Amino acid sequence: MKKTDRHVRRLGMVSCPTGYTWANVKAELRAIWESNVKQWKIELAYPLNFIRQCISPVIFLLPFLIYGLVLIGGRYSPNLEALIGNGDVVTFIFTGYIIMGFIGTAVWAMGFSIRNEQWFGTMESIYITPTNRLSIVLGTALHSTVHQGISTLVEFIIIYLVFGLALNMTGILPAMMIFALMMLALYGFGILISALSLVLKEGWIVSEGLHSIMMILSPVAYPLLVLPEVARQASFVFPTVPGLIGMRMFLLQDYKPEVIGNMFLALLLLDAAWILFGSLIFRLTDIYVRKRGSLEKY
Amino acid sequence: MTQSSLRSNYFVVWNEIVKNIKFLLAYPIVFVFWAIFPIFWFIPFILQGQALVGGLSSQAFAQIAGTPEFIPFVVIGSVLNSYVLSSLYGMGESIRREAYQGTLDYVLASPCNKSFILIGKAVSESLTSTIFALSQLAISILFFGIALTVGVVMPILFILILLILGLYGIALMLAALSLRFKQAHDLAHTLEYVFYLFSPVRYPVESLPLWAQAVGKLLPLTYALIAVRSLMLLKQGIAALYIEVLVLLVIDTALILIGFYLFNWMENKTKKSGIISQY
User: Fold this and answer.
1) Which residues does chain A have within 8 Å of residue B30's beta carbon, measured at their own beta carbons?
2) Interface probe with A: pick from B30, B40, B52, most Cβ of A within 10 Å
3) DSSP string spanning B115-131?
4) DSSP 8-state symbol, A225
5) 3-state helix, strand, coil in chain A (%, to 5)
6) Quick check: is B242 in a domain?
7) Is B63 domain-assigned?
8) pLDDT tens-digit series, residues A242-259
């Protein structure tokens, strides 16, 4: 074989990562990182939009707070105290609402990560790269999680300065651990929605629907005790329920080892269930849409 | 205006309505979504009220709102707020949608008065918004015990028409800006925030600081909500609400005049600069 032929063949060769080797894991991690960087570049190309998105969580939180304060004519609700042992409405609602943006990460950012590529006209190019499609979804998840982290910090500063917050500072670290476990399960949920968005023409309806249902069934602005029994039982399918109960236990209430233990266990189970289920559905959907050739259809 | 030009203008309005309704019916799931799902957005406020108060009424709330029943207060706020959403995102972005569908050049180059195209869009949006609002109201009457007497239906419709006129004045401005700047989506979001925070959708305006109350009193939704709640919850007659009606009329006139002026100005500007078909 001539030297030029070998050169041409080497240029045309693409080494596809197969199997669970360290080199392949590194390649996928790089793909996740690059997908994250790309999202940041797109986002920061519109700085005003970025600023608006950073303050929007406060805008959507304020009506819950003002409405709560008007209802009870002050900051402390005896009824809330009877239900959960702490009557501070502002701190209760704030600690619940901070996770709403992260639900958005799963439902919107991850859910539409691949669909958005279609709008940009880059989906086919991404699909033929030797990268796992989940890496694109996880890259978007990384970007969205950091973005929500910034928004939550802005939210915290504004609410702290305007209303003041009575948080148990020693509980922040364990609350963060619970939060991390909750996020893992939410990522699994996001992977499932990204699969659904590949097959459904109006996928935003599923996302909006699930977002609204999660908002109602999660103890964001009220304790679960006000929900009917059936809804309360069903709510434990979502990781936001043990996540919020556990986080509030550390941040607001007295630490109860038996409750915390149950919440940790529930979150670990939900993590495994949602990630496995989401990945399985994603894989099946990926095969299905490619077989049908319906990937590029709107 | 001759009879034939009147007929052709009517034809433009009618066909704009038919086109938009065809679009809506092509996606029945979207139709069902907007008829039902906005209810899910106010359910958390109802549950929050029950958790904080421990019942269905609050005396502290009554001191500011005039009624202790917070559920009807929230439901009415949400149903009327759906008109804000449809005007900002429906009508406000309708011109942008024509650009996406590749029909904007033809629409603007057609030999008809563009005001009638906009009127057609506004009427079709109002029709669909009213269908959605009625569906939400019917579900609220069934599940949340909202009382609606026949006697207040006509006054409420009158207030709704005044609200829609004002909102479409704002939407016209958005449509004008989307002609020139293409992406009016962010502006629509920002306006949504203003309505969401400063109008009495979930809480009375009086619960806000003075400067925020001043902002709220510039919005047509504020007066429409005060009037409709007075009719439905406080059982007042329309005659007692003449101040709200007058202020709404003044706001409507100002917004519509500014909206049409801005749209015509932007249309001429974009035609001259040749950027109509650009994204």
Assistant:
1) 202, 205
2) B52
3) HHHHHHHHHHHHHHHHH
4) G
5) 80, 0, 20
6) yes
7) yes
8) 999 999 988 887 777 777
User: How high is the ipTM of this complex?
Assistant: 0.86
The string of pLDDT tens digits covering residues A195-219 is 888 887 667 888 888 888 999 999 9
Which portions of chain A are predicted below pLDDT 50?
Answer: 1, 12
The closest CB to that of B44, out of A78, A202, A215, belongs to: A215
Task: Among B27, B48, B74, select the one facing A202 at the smallest CB separation.
Answer: B27
Q: How many folded domains does chain B comprise?
A: 1
How many angstroms separate the Cα of A14 from the Cα of each of A17, A25, A33, A212, A228?
9, 17, 21, 44, 57
Closest chain A CA to residue B193 = A59
Q: Is residue B11 part of a domain?
A: yes
Closest-approach residue (CA) in chain A for B74:
A67
Structure tokens at B86: 């449809």
* CB distance B93 to B184 below 8 Å: yes
Are residues A216 and B64, on separate chains, in Cβ contact within 8 Å? Answer: no
Contact B178, B184 (CB under 8 A): yes
Sorted by sequence, the CB contacts under 8 Å of residue A82 that are 6+ apart come out as B54
Nearest to A202 by CA among A111, A278, A105, A110: A111
Structural domain boundaries enclosing B33: 3-273
Cβ atoms within 10 Å, residue B199: 25
How far apart (Å, rounded) are the C-alpha atoms in residues B50 and B55? Answer: 5
The pTM assigned to this predicted structure is 0.85
Nearest CB to B30; choose among A60, A63, A205? A205
Residue whose structure tokens are 């799931």: B29
Joined together, the tokens standing for residue B7 give 């007929």
Task: Give yes or no for a contact between B83 and B160, defined as CB atoms under 8 angstroms apart.
Answer: yes
Counting every residue written for chain A, the total comes to 298
Report how far residue A218's alpha carbon sits from residue A242's, in angstroms, rounded to the nearest whole number. Answer: 9
CA distance A96 to chain B (A): 12
Q: Residue for token digits 């009327």?
A: B80
What is the rounded CA–CA span in Å between residue A207 and residue A148?
18
Q: Which bin fits A86, alpha (ψ -120 to 50), beta or left (φ > 0)?
A: beta
Distance from CA of B11 to the nearest CA of A (A): 32
Residue B7 domain-assigned? yes
CA distance B184 to B190: 10
